[in-house]
Amino acid sequence: xxxxxxxxxxxxxxxxxxxxxxxxxxxxxxxxxxxxxxxxxxxxxxxxxxxxxxxxxxxxxxxxxxxxxxxxxxxxxxxxxxxxxxxxxxxxxxxxxxxxxxxxxxxxxxxxxxxxxxxxxxxxxxxxxxxxxxxxxxxxxxxxxxxxxxxxxxxxxxxxxxxxxxxxxxxxxxxxxxxxxxxxxxxxxxxxxxxxxxxxxxxxxxxxxxxxxxxxxxxxxxxxxxxxxxxxxxxxxxxxxxxxxxxxxxxxxxxxxxxxxxxxxxxxxxxxxxxxxxxxxxxxxxxxxxxxxxxxxxxxxxxxxxxxxxxxxxxxxxxxxxxxxxxxxxxxxxxxxxxxxxxxxxxxxxxxxxxxxxxxxxxxxxxxxxxxxxxxxxxxxxxxxxxxxxxxxxxxxxxxxxxxxxxxxxxxxxxxxxxxxxxxxxxxxxxxxxxxxxxxxxxxxx
Length: 446
Ligand code: ADP
Ligand code: MG
Hints:
The chain contains 15 helices and 13 strands. 43% of the residues are buried. By secondary structure, it is an alpha/beta fold. The radius of gyration is 23 Å and the shape is globular. The strands form 4 sheets. Strands 3-2-1-4-9 form a 5-stranded mixed sheet. Strands 11-10-12-13 form a 4-stranded mixed sheet, sandwiched between helices. Helix content is 43%, strand content 20%. Mean pLDDT is 87; it is low at 165-185 and 252-264. Helix 7 (214-225) packs across helix 15 (430-441) and helix 8 (271-289) crosses helix 9. It binds adenosine-5'-diphosphate and magnesium ion.
């Protein structure tokens, strides 16, 4: 009938627009390598900023002593302490605490926010037990993971380039508001100086010895656990990556570049957006093809009403009548009675959106492997060599169909032989422990 025909037309259009054939992914990976090189040449117009971390030594395993870390990225922050026991004992003891940021502080001034964080940190330090040891006369040291683009000026200083992840979404009862994420510090200010001043105001004697992005923290944490880790990727609320580059191949700007192909956009991949993309397609289906009946469900019209974890839950429904998916449509979007057909169409939309995101993310990771020269079959001398990419982030960790598709696509792009030496693995909480490890390897006492 007419509805079915219209629904099919919408789906067909989405399938066409979302198609990611392998040839396209290869083109994206090549463009990515080009753009990485352009970013390294410090071209001011380069879309990939290629921020230099100032981390010149990754953890070796010999790190020793008590270190703290602070991980500030999304709507939560975490404080971590770890007692490191050197090569033999490794991580002797680790404790952490997660604190959610009160919404009013997320749109307030940076001073208020840093005061809140420093106060929580000071409380956490006071609970330090006997398993942790600070040598007499020493200052406590902290690695600060700050997951926004920062122009580092040294290992322990840097200024904010711009706010990313677009918006933070506050749920207040039934209504959702989009609040511009204009928080923490103003662009151009030194984030470590801000944090240090707040710690002083709390009477907390602690020195920030490393300022790192979450990708760099994950790289450090990953390397500590596995010597073959060469790159780290975050697939969470946002998307980002870090890898080890030789200092001597960061050249100066040298003129025009070939026109690049397609670029990967964070908004097609990240946890913050996948749910919203599904919502928009379902809304079009509701409008054009009355997918959920004659009336367009009002909740379906609300920006960000559908979140990525909900999409993931719907996508993983294996019941024959998709009853869990149906329950989600009811609970989240207020659509009570859905036809089996509408539920299957919804499932298909989840699949299209997740698959596109995962395949594009895979192309980006393949691009990094290419940049590192790790996309080739290792020569005989290096047959045993492994290349490991550490991945962290809630999207990769929890959305199994996404991570499975991502891994299969990387293997497909590498080809069977090269793929056999590349390992992609979850570095759970790499960024927290990684920042503490970098605080250790950049300690004032080291
Ligand atoms: P951040 O990047 O803010 O540090 P995390 O790494 O903690 O974020 O990941 C949180 C994000 O992961 C959420 O914003 C959400 O998009 C995504 N996510 C969390 N749980 C799931 C899930 N079960 N399925 C899909 N995505 C999820
Ligand atoms: Mg994070």
